[in-house]
Specification:
The protein has 24 helices and 19 strands. It is an alpha+beta fold and 764 residues long. The strands form four sheets. Strands 1, 2, 5, 6, 7 and 8 form a six-stranded mixed sheet that branches. Strands 10-11-12-19-14-17 form a six-stranded antiparallel sheet. The longest helix has 47 residues, at 405-451. It is globular. The N and C termini lie far apart (70 Å). The relative contact order is 0.09. Residues 1-26, 334-341, 603-655 and 743-764 have low confidence and may be disordered.
Length: 764
């Protein structure tokens, strides 16, 4: 970054005794090319993007009248002290910019570039070389898996909170680094306290990065202040920053409603915190590895397809030109690239960056209701950029006197270019996928609204199934993980109210992790839902009870077409199905509506109890599930959270089992396995002979349960077979093994296995 700009932001002075060379002055400007790359590539993809998921529910516009309903005070938008600035700012922006989405997305891009600039300033303040700074900010700027912060309007507050966090770090470093001859500016301490308190008022997670402030002090250039003075200032700075953050946490916990995220009821027990902290790290590792393998190729493919767009192509051309200048300057200035970066500073940057990555997962470890999402990776990307800057400086410092030093400089620059351009393509791919999903949301909700002709007030729209994917790259996570309009209850409810210009409609969500939907206690009369749906009655278990006559079920085809469901088939494992005719759906339908029957596979005799699942499936022997993974005579076709689809395949050399890790538990638990063989494959199963599905704990020979799969048993019109397994109390984590026993596997037989929790009485 130019010295004048850096001086304005950080108010620091060069500490080197010798004047900087002309080459060093030129290289100080090189991170500007990374910023130009960010501006050209990211902002070029913004104007055509629309609303997405929560955006529809955050507006203050009345769906029936189309006019904004402003509160008497912005404080009326805050029901408790949790992210108050987010709750006040976001609805106002969503309302003011309701018809100007491109302005909102432009704000997102500018906020992201502000974070990039502040990170560059922080790295230079900490003594990182231009090469390390450029690599660090390129890694953060173009990390593709935090795309939601860049392309989703609701995530603007995350970028703002991160920018304020970086600004608070700069203020803290300025306070610690002041020379003894300077007048002590105590005004920096209240400024630091204010910034540290405001950060979680937008979004809590960036506050976790303030935990590495003492490590960042170790990376500061020595300066003229003694170690005692610096130690005292560091203690004061940490006390002020951490204290302000703890004040926010105390206010949030004290004012949070019961069972709301962050309330005392949702906090993890302190004794369980270390185990949960490690478990969240393991979950984060699996999350990122799965997306590298099953999402990144699709993002790159979609990004390359967007190069046909003139605006995107122009942005990438400018980016390539800027990076070419970057490489040229790097090769010309190898001496300047070495700089005078001591190993102590570089090691401190590596440790601080790794600490930020780890601490970024701390908020998810403190409460039970938190889950990782794409936006959760914005702060870890900051830490990764800082750590990468330190690693690059270590490399350059260790090779300073080698004959190939200039080529190492060029290699670092070229790798930075490749990382930046590849990440930029992936980000453009994610942005295009979100644009397609946003357009599909509008189209599908408009089709559903056109199919309905004045339904009764407070009718409940129920999505039963969706086969639609906004992209078809073959990378299953990229194609399927975007948040569609029917995946979040407040998104589908708000969007349908705007489409039908009514305030008296309800809707519930559907997700691929729960193929049967969130319905409970399904029977001939209706169903229950674990949410508030007035004026429908509430059961003693606090479930809203809705009759079929107040329900409009629908499905979404692969091409995005909508079909109304006018008949529900409640399937039973013994084949005694029940058919429920929904005549009112045809009564409320408009001309041209399409209809279908839908088989619901969770009868009341085996209804899962609400709660967290027992465990998540993992493949034995350390193999990660892939769409084509073979597991011990099984072919894994689909894996989406709660459901595992297995195909028996002949002569496989892979392990003959799948496994899942069970957490310790003081009480026995029950696990339900549901096994299905389609009728058209019964003959193949008969040819394969009797096959047993056995469930056991690793290291034990006796089975906890077994199920015989043979054509005679399944041929009596059974759709699926339940296997209830009692899991004993466990003092330590154990692996549960599900394996096949049987030798004759001559033909492929699809077998579907899913899991769930049972009530204490078990199956009827």
């Amino acid at each position: 970054m130019p010295a004048c700009v850096r001086s304005c932001i950080t108010n620091t002075r060069p500490t080197s005794a010798s004047p900087p060379s002309a080459a060093r002055e030129r290289t100080d400007d090189l991170p500007v090319w990374i910023l130009m790359l960010a501006a050209c590539v990211i902002l070029s993809a913004l104007p055509a993007r629309g609303k997405y998921s929560d955006d529809y529910a955050a507006s203050l516009i009345d769906p029936a009248s189309g006019r904004a309903v402003w509160p008497d005070s912005p404080l009326d938008l805050v029901d408790h002290f949790g992210r108050p600035l987010h709750l006040m700012l976001t609805p106002v922006l969503q309302t003011l910019l309701w018809n100007h989405d491109w302005v909102y997305h432009l704000l997102n891009g500018i906020a992201h570039l502000l974070c990039v600039a502040l990170l560059a300033s922080l790295l230079r303040t900490l003594g990182a070389s231009w090469a390390g700074t450029s690599a660090g900010i390129a890694a953060f700027c173009f990390f593709p898996f935090h795309h939601e912060v860049i392309f989703w309007s609701m995530s603007l507050v995350i970028a703002l909170a991160t920018a304020l966090m970086l600004a608070s770090m700069l203020v803290a470093m300025r306070f610690v680094r002041m020379d003894p001859g300077e007048r002590m500016s105590w005004a920096l301490l209240p400024l630091l306290a204010l910034l540290a308190f405001i950060v979680p008022c937008f979004y809590e997670h960036p506050s976790a990065a303030l935990g590495v402030l003492p490590i960042l002090v170790l990376a500061l250039p020595a300066g003229s202040a003694g170690w005692r003075r610096r130690l005292i200032r560091t203690a004061l700075m940490c006390g002020v920053a951490w204290g302000a953050t703890l004040v926010y946490v105390a206010l949030k916990v004290a004012t949070a409603p019961p069972l709301a995220r962050g309330s005392s009821e949702t906090l993890v027990d302190p004794a369980d915190l270390p185990a949960r902290f490690l478990a969240i790290h393991a979950q984060a590792g699996r999350w990122i590895l799965a997306r590298i393998e099953r999402a990144f190729p699709g993002a790159i493919e979609t990004g390359l397809s967007m190069l046909r767009d003139p605006l995107t192509l122009a942005g990438m051309a400018l980016a390539v030109a800027g990076m070419a200048m970057f490489v040229r300057a790097a090769i010309r200035s190898s001496a300047a690239s070495k700089g005078d970066t001591p190993s102590r500073r570089s090691l401190a940057l590596v440790v601080a960056g790794a600490g930020i990555v780890s601490l970024a997962l701390l908020p998810y470890s403190l409460v039970h209701l938190a889950s990782l999402a794409a936006r959760a990776w914005y702060l870890p990307a900051i830490g990764g950029g800082i750590a990468l800057a330190g690693l690059v400086d270590l490399l350059l410092a260790s090779t300073r006197n080698l004959p190939i030093a200039r080529w190492i400089d060029a290699g670092v620059a070229l790798l930075t270019v490749m990382m930046g351009l590849t990440g930029a393509l992936a980000q453009i791919g994610y942005g295009e996928a979100m644009r397609r999903q946003s357009q599909a949301d509008i189209d599908q909700s408009a089709r559903l609204a056109a199919m309905l002709d004045r339904p009764d007030p407070w009718v409940v729209l129920v999505p039963m199934h969706s086969a639609f994917r906004p992209t078809h790259t073959g990378a299953d996570l990229f194609d399927a993980e975007l948040i569609a309009w029917h995946r979040v209850v407040w998104a589908i409810r708000s969007l349908m109210r705007f489409q039908m210009q009514r305030n008296d409609l309800h809707a519930i969500e559907w997700g691929p992790w729960n193929p049967a939907g969130p319905l409970r206690d399904v029977d001939d009369d209706g169903w229950s839902y674990p949410g508030w749906l007035p004026p429908h009655p509430v059961t003693p278990q606090r479930l809203s009870r809705v009759s079929w006559s107040d329900t409009i079920p629908f499905t979404i085809d692969a091409d995005g077409g909508i079909r109304l469901v006018d008949e529900i088939i409640l399937e039973s494992p013994d084949g005694r199905d029940r058919r429920i005719s929904l005549d009112h759906v045809r009564t409320w339908s408009a001309p041209g509506a399409r209809f279908r029957s839908f088989a619901y596979q969770t009868p009341s005799s085996l209804r899962p109890a609400p709660g967290r699942p027992v465990a998540r499936w993992r493949v034995a022997h350390g193999e990660r599930p892939r769409p084509d993974a073979r597991i011990g005579g099984l072919k894994l076709w689909q894996r989406v959270y709660e459901c595992v689809r297995l195909d028996l395949a002949p002569k496989s050399r892979a392990p003959r089992a799948i496994a899942t890790r069970l957490a310790p538990g003081k009480n026995p638990r029950e696990l339900l396995l549901r096994v299905t063989v389609p009728r058209q494959h019964l003959q193949a199963l008969n040819d394969a002979g009797v096959i047993a599905l056995r469930v056991r704990l690793e290291g034990e020979r006796h089975a906890l349960g077994a199920l015989l799969l043979d054509a005679r048993t399944l041929g009596r019109e059974r759709r699926w077979l339940p296997l209830v397994v009692s899991i004993p109390a466990l003092d330590a984590p154990r692996r549960l093994i599900v394996e096949l026993a049987g030798e004759r596997q001559e033909r492929a037989v699809p077998v579907f296995v899913s899991r769930g929790r049972l009530r204490t009485e078990g199956p009827s």
